[in-house]
Every structure is written in structure tokens, then in C-alpha cells.
Glycosyltransferase
Amino acid sequence: MSASDLNQGLRVALFSGNYNMVTDGANKALNRLVGYLLRQGVKVRVYSPTIENPAFEPAGDLVSLPSFAIPGRQEYRVATGLPARVRRDLEAFAPNIVHISSPDPGAHRAVTWARQHGIPVLGSVHTRFDTYPRYYNMAWAEPLLTAILRRLYRRCDALVAPSESFAQVLRDQRMNYDISLWSRGVDRTIFDASHRDMGWRRDLGIADDEVVIGLFSRLVMEKGLDVFADTIDELVASGVPHRVLIVGDGPARHWFEARLPQAVFAGHQAGQDLGRAVASMDVLFFPSITETFGNVTLEAMASSLPAVCAEATGSESLVEDGVTGRLIRPGAIHAFAKALQAYVENPEMRVAHGAAGEMRARDFSWDRINQSVADTYLRLIRQKGARR
């Protein structure tokens, strides 16, 4: 029986905090999931805050939720609940599974609505929200935030996480006892070493013989930008020849540009332009500890780059230390610098580890990965029916 045959009858109400307002890994994954489900004949309706000029066109039908902008982070909004018009829309759509993907008040209300109607709930966890306060001088709030997240996720029938390492963190935090994987795929038409463009590098002022240490990400402090900058300072102080290429934009860009005036900032890139930028790097340096999977890491590996990452959830499920890159203790500036220096000075190791990473990236097929979510929907529906 085909996947589309298995999926017939699914009616999914997906609640997102930011479905297409910002181009980030979680939003791209959710839109790709909805696109796959629709191609399989699944009925999907998405409920999310909306803005007048979103980053991209959404996959599927989108119903706007009331929301407010996060102070200091206006690009993100918080869904505040389910007004009567949304509840009427839900009743008319009649989902047989509810999927929440952001722990905001809208998601809390969606879980309550589903439980009142006897509908199973799947929660997908995309970000280490519990670690965010430490980047804004609010580390005292982490235990409170963890408790709020636990209350929400324990009310779900199951969770999906993008990596086994993060799933284990959720288990250790007692978020839920039914946690499976919804991994991430990589678009090999975009991310491939064949898109390397030396002419593009030259136009940025980078010589052919210079080794480029690259970062491509949304430029926000929780991506470890301070650790990145401190590590580059140590390389400069040690006289290690290199160039730094930063691809991306975000609220911390001005801080980052002032902190690394010698770096090349290429701004936001998307699609084939992003693939060209990544393939034109020589090594990825990504010290973030907030990733639950590490789309950036996988895309760099598909482009045959060795990856130097923090030993944290997400990266440690992708990078094999000493084979496809290096995993370094979070915040260990000197160790990060030594790992990068080794790749700068040893082109043979750089090529070998990049090739091994590309082989590892071949394991990630989007259709297979997204069908695993549909399979989880079907399992939860069966289990709910059996309990009745």
C-alpha cells in the first residue's frame, strides 16, 4: 500500500507560532511537511499569527491567530489564544489530529480544545526554548520556563523531536514519555559542492588560496555569536591565516559586524544563492547550543564542508568527531580555535572530513522523514480510538 493510501482520511490542524513570517529552519520544516501531506491527499489547515508582508508564501490554507509582537524581537509574534471565530473554523474543519509546534498561549488553548473534543495531540519541539533566557541576562527564568514547557508537553499524547540527542534531553526533563524522531532532510539540488563559485568569492574580495571559515544562520545572539567572535579573535592573535564569511541577517547583525570588522558579510541568501555561498566556504563553524537538529550543519555537510560545532543537542547527532568534523565542549574558545586551525593548516584532512560529511548527508530524505510524522499521526489516532 502506498503512503498516499495510508494517509487518506487524515485531517490535520497544525498550530504554528510563526509559520511563514521568518525564514528559519523550523518554519521551512513545517511548510515542507504540509506540502508533503497535501501531495499525499491529507487535509491540512494551519493556524498561526500572520503579518502583512511575510517572508514567503505559506504551504496550505492559513488561518490567522490573534497575536502580539515580542518586545525587542518584532519579527516574531506570540499567539494569544483561540477566539470564537477560530474555534468555529476548527469545528467546521473537524480535524482528527492536532499538531502544535510552538509553546505559546495559542498552543495551550489548542491542546485544551483537542482534549475537550477527544482528539489526539502531537507536539513537535523545534528549539531549545529553555536555554534562551541565558542569552538575555535572564538565566534565573530557565527553571520556570522549563516547568511551563513540561506542563504543555505532558498534555500532548506524544512529541516528536528532530534528533535523538534532543529527544533524550526531553526525556530527561520528563516532558513526555512518548517521544519519537522527526528528523530533517536536505535539498541536494541546492546544497552540493558542485555549486562552489570561486568567481563569487573573488567578487567579495576573497582570494582563491584563502581558507574561508563560514557561518550561515539567522544572526541572533542565541546562535553563539559571542563564542564565534571570541574564537576568531584567538585565531587572529595566533597568526592563523584565514577569512571569515558570514551569510545571513538578523537583529544581531550590527553587533556582529562591529565585533568582527575583518569579516565578509554577504547578507541574506536563499535558494541557489545560499547553496553557492555555502559551497564556497571551506569549513563551517557553528558554536550554537540551542539547535535541536542543526539544519545548518546538515546543509554544510551536504556541501562537503567539515563542521566544527558545539557538542550539544542536534550537532552531536550529525557530526562524528574526527570523521566529519569536530565536536567541542560548548564555550571552549581555545579548543574551538585549535580545531579550526587544524582545518586551515591541513587541506587533506579538510577534504577527507568534508567528503565523509557528504556521505553522511545522503541518509536524509525529506519524503521518508515527513512520512514518519504522518505515521505518528495515524498511530495516535488508532491509540485514541482503542482507548475509547
